[in-house]
Amino acid sequence: MAQTVHGSRILIIDDEESILDGCRQALEKSGYSVTTSSNGLAGVNLTREIKPEVLFVDLKMPCCSGMDIIENISREMPDIVLIVITGYASIVSAVEAMKKGAYDYLPKPFTPDQLRAVTKRGIEHRRLKVEAEILREEKARMEKNFITFVSHEMRSPLVTIQQYIESLKLISEGALRPEALEIIQRCEKRIQNLHELIEHWLDISRIENGTFSEARIALNLTEVIERSLEEMCPLCQRRGIVLESDLGKDLPMIYGDHESLLRVFSNIIGNATKYTPPGGKIRVCTDCDDYYISVSVSDTGQGIPQDKLPFIFEPFYRVHGKQERQKGSGLGLTFSKKIMEAHNGRIEAVSNEGEGTTFTMKFPRAYDM
Amino acid sequence: MTTNQKKILIIDDDQDYADALRIVLENHGYEVYHTPNIHEGRERVLSNPPDLIILDVMMDKHTDGFDLCSDLKNDQACSAIPIMMVTAVTEKTGFKFSPSTDGDYCLADDYVSKPVPVSDLLSRVNRLIQTRKAC
């Protein structure tokens, strides 16, 4: 039945042969390639086979509901422009069909010119939709390349400076005064901070442009936390802080990105070490109810004043103002919050000044695994 | 200059970075050459084979280092020369192919992130050159 006329492919499903003939003649005259079907089910199969640009469907057919066809095709092949053919009396159902994914409707009786006008509009709509999709993909690709490019350009000079400092330390061994060595050490520290800042900025860019969510897999939170505890243990020992944990053995799995979550936990524990005095304690626990899996990190540090608590997740916010500048990138908590949001979870902080702070990370339970 | 001095070729588009490595390596008695791109690098490897290649990843193209590594490792004439990939690239940059995640695919003998601490650099270089002597 398919015609070999060049031009857009149109398929018409209608139980009235006279309508099919009329439509075919009108559209073929304008150069379209027209296929018709007088049976709903056969029409659906034909749609899958020839993938028309525009599909006309009669809403009222004896054997099969046009509404169902609209609903199924719009879900299965969203690129096809769907137009319903309907009697004057059924404008209400035309509206319903459009809610289900039809782009336009053509009330009976219609003239060849009306048919051609609706067809032309449908094809134009499809063209714009396809173009918009291509542009969207192009934009996403450029953004991704941009991040790769910028990260390389920002890192390279830093890395080179760090490598030079390494060389400098080697060739100046024993030749420099202690003051000079201290200056080199300070430079190293500040460059390290800048390095971390770029890393965090990159992470945040990655979350914002959606590259992040590609990396989600089923994972066991206990394992991630254990790795983080291993990582943070030496730091706590150096600072004379006790790091203890109480982790649930049978926590349900979640979908997530192992590396990002590892850095969230390490960030929060690392943060706690900065504000907890020697002899203090950091405790990591997990909990689980019907809706959430929670991970909490409590410290016995100085705490965060109540009026500052709402701002701690803001980029570059410092609870203690400028004298805190050297403590980190200023993006650690912002990053952690973004990562939690990308996992459909959240992070909260409760604090009592002089007693300590508890950060709680909540993940929604996934019941589809 | 002794004749059995080991030769190291650094292929990196960052002259400064190459110099920073050169200072350390020459200080420890290695003979160091540098080429700023993979084309000159490839010629140099074939005309005057080094004992070790230190190879950057992102140069003119994002994948230059991987491309050259794969070419050299698949060429009988030079497949025995150890290659140490040194890069600031990680999977986090949005770069799909990274030796830390796709190590099996990458034929380099060693892979290390920039910057490399001096002691780490020297022990790796030493080990790679020893390995070559052994085979």
Topology:
The complex is a heterodimer of chains A (369) and B (135).
Chain A: E1 9-13, H1 17-29, E2 33-37, H2 40-50, E3 54-58, H3 66-76, E4 81-87, H4 91-99, E5 104-108, H5 112-171, H6 178-208, E6 217-219, H7 221-238, E7 242-246, E8 254-256, H8 258-275, E9 281-288, E10 292-299, H9 332-342, E11 346-352, E12 356-364
Parallel strand pairs in A: 1-2, 1-3, 3-4, 4-5, 7-9
Antiparallel strand pairs in A: 6-8, 9-10, 10-12, 11-12
Helix pairs in contact in A: 1-5, 5-6, 6-9, 7-8, 8-9
Chain B: E1 7-11, H1 15-27, E2 31-35, H2 38-47, E3 52-55, H3 64-73, E4 83-87, E5 110-113, H4 118-134
Parallel strand pairs in B: 1-2, 1-3, 3-4, 4-5
Labels describing this entry:
heterodimer; A: 369 residues; alpha/beta; Rossmann fold; Heat Shock Protein 90; 3 domains; five-stranded parallel β-sheet; five-stranded mixed β-sheet; 9 helices; 49% helix; disordered N terminus; B: 135 residues; 17% strand
